[in-house]
Amino acid sequence: MFCSDWLKSIASRGERNQPDLKAFGISCHLIEPGVNRTPILNQMYDRIAAFEVPDDLAKEYPKEFIEKHISYVRDVTEAFIAPNCDAVVDAYEHALFGMYPRARYSLLLVAKVLMRLPEYALDYAFIHREGGRKPQPRLIY
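The structure corresponding to this sequence follows.
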């Protein structure tokens, strides 16, 4: 869900392009909206539910594991979801028309915290979250 390396690469690309774009009067801003409740999210849930597992993966992972993992992903997503997109619109408006716009907008407090945590801390937080453990695949020998 939160890929800190991916976000860092996007941020570095924006910072790299900023001096080149500034020469033409173009400002560069990074807006990290997080996860918002939109119809796109519902489409993602429908696509995950309709996803058919390839035969080679179905042999290794039982159907119960896949169902538990889908519900786990949905629970984690629902835990960090924002109810509306007002903050995103406000950030866009401030980036475009603000007197002193920021170079980077992180809209969710959770995203700000999770982006700065190391991977082992993220794994620990997701494994020991309220509601139980992440489903584990069974070992096949």
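The first helix runs from residue 4 to 22.
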